[in-house]
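Weekly puzzle thread! Below is a chain. First person to post its structure in token form gets bragging rights.
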Amino acid sequence: MAIRWRFGIIAGVFLAIFSLYPQMKMLYLRGDAWNGHYAYNDIDEVAYAAYVRALIDGRPRKNDPYTGRDDSIESTQPESLFSIQFAAPYTIAMPARLLGIGTPWAMTLGGAFAAFFAALLLFWLIRMITGDDIVAMAGSLVTLAGGAIFAGEGAIGEITGWSYAYPYFPGFRRYIPAMAFPAFFLFLGLVWKLINQRSERSLSPLLLVSLSSAAFAYTAFSYFYVWTTAIAWLGCLGLCWLVVRPNGWFADIKRLVIVGIGCLIALAPYAHLLSQRSHTMDDVQLLVYTRQPDLFRVPEIIGYLTLAMIAIAVATKMLELCDRSTIFAISLALVPLVVFNQQIITGRSLQPIHYQVFIGNYVAGAALLVTFGLLWTKAKDVKPAARNAVFATLTVIAIAWGFVECHYTVKILDDVNVARDEALPVARKLDEIAKQTGNWRNENVMHFGIAEGDDLPTLAPQPVLWARHQHVFAGVTWQENKERYYQYLYYLGVSPNSLAANMKNGDDFVSMIALFGWGRHSDRLNSEYKPLTFREIDAEADKFARYIERFDPRTNGIPLTYAIAETDGFTNFDAIDRWYVRDKGEAFGRYTLYRLNLK
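Winning reply:
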């Protein structure tokens, strides 16, 4: 029976709506005052958007939008997390540049298209396995709309009271993992077609191998956690095929081996780029050497439940173990266990929370929905009308829950998204100045707003003195990033004593991140998390005190050209006015732009 694509399109449209919800919420909050900025779904998106902006501007692949340092013959730059994972941002930047679309709209539309095609391709995958359009539509919507639940995160935390409602639809974080998701589900679907050839009209194995290798390559050069999950799944599938040995298994294994070789070929240039990475990248990624098992994360529990369902179904003859669809479901259910415990073999663990939130949860959800769909479609005593009613109900529940997720998780970012939009006019002025002077690389900006300064490279090309995500690029070393933050604190008027006190009270997580790294302020990212001690904090405050004692922007600092502060709020300019002549400033709504000249 031909696939009725309208059901997949329905799933895709709703996922696109969920992706656009933060933007619609911003439009509602701002009304006629909206300046044209995009609403971000996650605070990390500012770094991705800044990189996209640089690519739209025609800057090279190895660029640092926060410092303005680009790769050139005169000054070669090492590889960064962004330059290695270049496929996804180029997918957004190239059409945006061709069509003259700015970064805010590029991010907004890119996320919506990614959500739509992820849902459509997941529908396609589930439809091929179960043979039912309504089951596939429900499976796609439940898996993607329920991604946060399958991670043990999101709105459910606030509703039940055990946590807070964050993050917002983790799979929609732009541009990763959002852009990698369609390629991931395409990879799974192509491999399924490769091992489930049933008619002469099927695509040739060579074409399927080529397409699946290309889909994998896109994930490899888009997001680490997605491509490693794809490899883990392919290994699980091959192992299951070897153990169960369905009819024609040997021919299937040969095809899977060829796909694996294609994946390895794609990883060869990836490995080369990785070997050229910045040392700062290792510090940022929080690589931990351990062989400790990790067995009870939410996606793993869902995987165990799915495997138990399959075991019971096989034992009761509801499913056939040698059926290719059953084996495929088993392979999906095994993936969370593998990705969370690969360190038992490799001895290396790299922020496993990203598997939990950004991909492992969706694979676990897909395994559960595929298994549930198989049980209903293969049950002989269930009438099609009853089955359709059940999965139509699941579809409605998934859509309703999607809006619940939107309501609870988006409101956390309402204030910062409004502030970012209010800061857009002053950023446009800087962009205009950059186009007029052409000397923007030497014009450093001090933004007194942390979130707004972090967002500035998305809107204007001038380097910033310091930003919360500056250290994730290869343009600065970890030491330089700390020294830039020292300067930032100095201009803010923060004293060493207040710096120490705020970190000890737990009120200044920004300083914890900037001075000690992302792995010291929370146990979410690092499996060997060690809380900061007062001794460490006092030692860092002493370093800050010694730094500002000898600080002179004319000799050992970053010379500033502009400062941005709130128009009506109080701003302590004492430190800046000590070294710079500040003009009267030009107001752009909530923020005022000041021109600075060293004395």
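Puzzle host: Confirmed. Bonus trivia for everyone else. The mean pLDDT is 93.
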